[in-house]
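Quick one:
INPUT:
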């Protein structure tokens, strides 16, 4: 047994409760050195998620201080930083919670091999998911490609109970030097947007837990009916917290189970949505190419378009199609977008504008504060038709019809589109404060004419699809 310090390398697990790695470290009785590294993988994040990550790191650093611990911040390639910290602290090894995206897997595999070769401990823990992707298998021993059987297989699986946050953790007598978080300028690319989007963030573990509690005390009762209505606050809004690990998924799952067992209608549907998150990770683990290329290779020859003026108007929420523009503006103002509308803006881009889903995926990765590598990739490929269990390409969402069905009173469209109301509200106007000045747009301009006629766009998409299948 050793009493050497342990470096706890935090990444997307910025919480104290439901934290298997931290619980094991406390049980070991060894002093810990919590560290967060701004490495090239973090550097590569889009503007909004990188900025939001900075808020998460700041909140987590404060939470650690409450336990008498200091979060050491360092910049550089992970292995080099960890080696330097080991030399400075005399640590016996490094522990971390597992991630599953291809870039993190490649980095972590290299770090683990190098540390082990040097005779050091390198241990990874579960914590980001309910089930490790390799623990869920079909009857034939393969992985699931379709959600419903995945859900049937995992719905009743035992999920370990979340560990409570530790009361005491042994720290170091002398802490290593740390960078200053402000010096990293994680929000640099957000420019004007940061001030606006900041109003909509609920940062840190306490805020996430409060949100979960409020959701399960109220909206969950009508979640099954309300979750599709973007004008209503009918969903948990936990994606922002789950993606940085500000709340543990096992804690959310068990809270959902309790709500279901207490008879709250909607709780079962909520658990099912959590399983969609799991499924996206299951797919990313087994088919990592889902993040970079068509999951179904037969789509490789589809005549997707790349950049165009129409795409730029889509990004700017200026397509002239109100439900689509409202969604893109919601993302610019709040950092997230309602799930129903993500599907509609995605369908519009990949079908009416015949644009490659990768263009949309990249824009979301730049703008979403809840950006998640697995959910974003699965969502885009589902919408485009190129992914597993996808909506068939010929099922083209009609944004006008969708608006009538899911935003019948136009509340959502008016909330985000200033040009459609005489007295625009705070959020509609905030869009113009958040966007780059170089876009040169103002709320008193006329709302743009549609960039594409819906019937013509649909016909062109179906013709391209027909030609591909001819
Ligand atoms: P709730 O309805 O309260 O659901 C609870 C949780 O379940 C969510 O927080 C999320 O973790 C999970 N969940 C719900 N729906 C899905 C889904 N369809 N796929 C995967 N997980 C789901 N989600 C992200 O977290 N990050 C992304 O980058 C992302 N990109 C998307 C891109 C597209 C094109 C589409 C169609 C969907 C995408 N989603 C993404 C999924 C979904 O839109 C969001 O998870 C959801 O809107 C978050 O709101 P909520 O927390 O209120 O969800």
């Amino acid at each position: 047994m050793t009493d050497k310090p342990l470096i706890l390398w935090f990444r997307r697990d910025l919480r104290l409760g439901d934290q298997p790695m931290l619980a094991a470290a406390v049980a070991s009785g060894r002093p810990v050195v919590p560290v967060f590294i701004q490495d090239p993988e973090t550097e590569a994040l889009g503007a909004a998620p990188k900025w939001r990550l900075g808020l998460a790191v700041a909140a987590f650093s404060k939470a650690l201080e409450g336990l008498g611990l200091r979060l050491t911040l360092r910049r550089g390639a992970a292995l080099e930083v960890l080696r330097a910290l080991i030399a400075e602290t005399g640590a016996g090894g490094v522990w971390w919670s597992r991630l599953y995206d291809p870039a993190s897997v490649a980095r972590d595999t290299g770090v683990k091999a190098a540390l082990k070769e040097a005779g050091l401990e390198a241990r990874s823990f579960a914590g980001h998911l309910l089930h490790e992707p390799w623990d869920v298998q079909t009857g034939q021993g393969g992985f699931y490609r379709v959600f419903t059987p995945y859900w049937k297989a995992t719905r009743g699986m035992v999920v370990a109970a979340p560990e409570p946050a530790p009361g005491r953790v042994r720290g170091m007598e002398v802490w290593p030097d740390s960078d200053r978080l402000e010096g990293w300028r994680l929000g640099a690319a957000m420019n004007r947007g940061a001030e606006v989007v900041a109003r909509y963030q609920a940062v840190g573990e306490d805020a996430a837990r409060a949100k979960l509690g409020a959701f399960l005390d109220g909206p969950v009762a009508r979640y099954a009916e309300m979750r599709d209505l973007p004008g209503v606050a009918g969903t948990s809004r936990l994606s922002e917290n789950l993606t940085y690990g500000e709340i543990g998924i096992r804690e959310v799952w068990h809270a959902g189970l309790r709500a279901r067992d207490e008879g709250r209608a909607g709780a079962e549907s909520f658990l099912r949505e959590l399983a969609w998150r799991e499924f996206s990770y299951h797919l990313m683990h087994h088919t990592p190419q889902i993040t970079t290329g068509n999951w179904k290779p037969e789509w490789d020859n589809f005549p997707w378009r790349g950049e165009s003026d129409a795409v730029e108007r889509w990004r700017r929420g200026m397509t002239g199609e109100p439900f689509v523009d409202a969604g893109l503006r919601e993302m610019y103002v709040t950092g997230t977008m309602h799930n129903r509308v993500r599907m509609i803006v995605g369908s519009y881009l990949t079908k009416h504008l015949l644009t490659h889903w990768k263009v949309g995926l990249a824009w979301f990765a730049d703008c979403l504060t809840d950006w998640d590598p697995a959910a974003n990739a699965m969502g885009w490929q589902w919408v485009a038709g190129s992914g597993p269990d996808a909506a068939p390409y010929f099922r083209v969402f009609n944004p006008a019809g969708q608006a009538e069905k899911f935003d019948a009173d136009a509340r959502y469209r008016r909330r985000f589109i200033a040009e459609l109301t005489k007295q625009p509200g705070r959020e509609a106007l905030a869009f113009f404060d958040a966007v780059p000045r170089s876009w040169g747009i103002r709320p008193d301009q006329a709302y743009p004419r549609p960039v594409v006629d819906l019937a013509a766009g649909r016909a062109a998409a179906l013709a391209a699809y027909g030609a591909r299948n001819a």
